[in-house]
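Contributing new records

If you add data, match the layout below exactly. Sequence lines come first and carry their own label; structure lines follow with theirs. Keep one chain per record. Anything else will be rejected by the validation script.
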Amino acid sequence: TPDSAIAIALSFLNLQENDILYDIGCGDGRFVISAAKDAPKKTKIIGIEADAKLATRAEQAALSIPNVQILQADATCIDFTDATKIFLYLVPCGLSAIKSTLDKVRHSADVVSYTFTIPEWIPDIRRVPAPNRAAIYFYPRSTFSKKEIKQ
């Protein structure tokens, strides 16, 4: 994830004291480390990565950061319903695979997806950090409540 996309995603998520942020598909940990630098110290940051080599790189990069935890796991097997903020960098089949869990947190968590949209969700904001870059999609928790009331 390029730095420009990370900066936009973090501005959308606006991490606060006692937030629980999940980075699903955390790769080498670039996003979780950036989030930890900007977040209040009591923010809990959890990266989930299926690829063992990438998860190990993320763990090593985050060793000295006390509020960051990296899990080498399949996100479909992780309960992340305690999330208040979620960052996703998954391909469409990965987003589809975790959609049922995402649906459970849509009223309690702000969600940012990088590159791909979440199936059946309509983002409030779509931002492209620079020409020829992938888009960032923001789904604030308040949006879901408003859309459901209108229906």
